[in-house]
Amino acid sequence: MPGTNLTREEARERARILTVDTYDVALDLTGTGPTFASETTVRFSCAEPGASTFIDLVAPSVDSVTLNGTELDPAKVFADSRIRLDGLAAENELRVVASCAYMNTGEGLHRFVDPVDSKTYLYTQFEVADARRVFANFEQPDLKASFAFSISAPQDWQVIGNSPTPAPIPALEGNGTAVWRFAPTPRISTYITALVAGHYHAVRDSYTAADGTVVPLGVFCRASLAEFLDADNIFDVTKQGFDYFLEQFDFPYPFAKYDQLFVPEYNAGAMENAGCVTILEDYVFRSKVTDASYEVRAETILHELAHMWFGDLVTMQWWDDLWLNESFATYASIRCQAEVTRWKHAWATFGNRMKTWAYRQDQLPSTHPIFADIRDLEDVEVNFDGITYAKGASVLKQLVAYVGSDQFMAGVRTYFKRHAWGNTTLADLLTALEETSGRDLSAWSAEWLQTAGINTVRPEITVDDSGTITSFAVLQEAPETWPTIRTHRMAIGFYNRTSEGLVRSHRVELDVSGPRTEVAELVGRTRPDVVLLNDDDLTYCKIRLDEHSLAVVTSAIGEFADPLPRALCWAAAWDMTRDAEMATRDYLTLVLSGIGQEKDINIVGSLHRQLISALELYAAPEWRPTGLARLAEAALGHLRSSAPGSDHQLAWARCLATVAVTDDQIALLNGLLDGTGTVDGLAVDTDLRWALLQRLVAVGAADADAIEAERRRDDTAAGARHAAACLAARPTRAAKDEAWASVVESDTLPNATQGAVIGGFLQPDQRELLAAYTERYFEAIAGIWEQRTNEIAQMIVMGFYPSIQVSQATLDRTDAWLDAADRVPALRRLVVESRDGVARALRAQEKDRASA
Question: Which residues are tagged catalytic?
Answer without folding.
Answer: 304
